[in-house]
Amino acid sequence: MTPTPSDQAARAPMVMHALPVGGGILAIAPLPGAGGDYAGDLAHVHEWTPAMVISLVTDVELLQAGAQSLGQDIQDKGTRWVHLPVADFGVPGPEMQEAWPEISHRARRALLGGGRVLVHCRGGCGRSGMVALRLMIEADEAPDEALARLRGVRPCAVETDAQMAWAMAAERKPVQFVRHSG
Predict the structure, then answer these.
(1) I need a labelling partner for 63 at 20 to 30 A (CA). Which of 57, 102, 176, 181 fits?
(2) SS3 assignment, position 158
């Protein structure tokens, strides 16, 4: 039986939308397996060699995509895996808020060392964009420029006002102005 175009589209390889951040590469993507090819998507992630993968999906979403072993599969290849479940179209709850400073520090340290960090949710838009934007701002990018760069590679990044508010609440270092004598 010959696959139809819709069958082929459903099994299209996972796309990682990447951009340089802090000396490394930050990417957002859909959940491996969401398109129907968990093994292929997982191989694609491993070939990309991220230092860290941040999963923002719920346990139910992992199960629905056939990706319930994602954490173990990622860690088996030597990649740090962090699971921070956030409901679709949602924002982090108290547990993630408490864990975030350390996770952000580790992700930014990986980026600063030239490493790669992959952030994913179910579709690779809202939740992934929210966390990527926050990391970009915490890596000292101007919020408006960071959002423009992120949406330049993934226009659907950050889908709700609440997600935008969480991302924009990132702590930043005070700005220092340098005057040049002319």
Answers:
(1) 102
(2) coil
Residue with tokens 């346990």: 59
The one-letter amino acid at 86: V
Instruction: Write out pLDDT tens, residues 63-94.
Output: 999 999 999 999 999 999 999 999 999 999 99
Q: Are 116 and 108 in contact, with CB atoms under 8 Å apart? A: no
Structure tokens at 94: 């108290």
pLDDT of residue 99 exceeding 70, the answer is: yes
Strands 24-29 and 116-120: parallel
Query: Could you tell me which of 24, 33, 30 has the C-alpha nearest to residue 52?
Result: 24
Token pair 């629905």 is found at: 64
Which residue ranges form the domains of the chain, and what is each CATH number? 15-168 (3.90.190.10)
Torsion angles phi and psi, residue 55, rounded to 5: -100, 125
Residue pointed to by tokens 């547990």: 95
Instruction: Specify the pLDDT at position 91.
Output: 97
Provide DSSP, 2-57.
PPPHHHHHHTPPP--EEEEETTEEEEEEPPTTTTS-HHHHHHHHHHH--SEEEE--
Position 14 scores a pLDDT of 92
pLDDT 10s digits, 31-46: 999 999 999 999 999 9
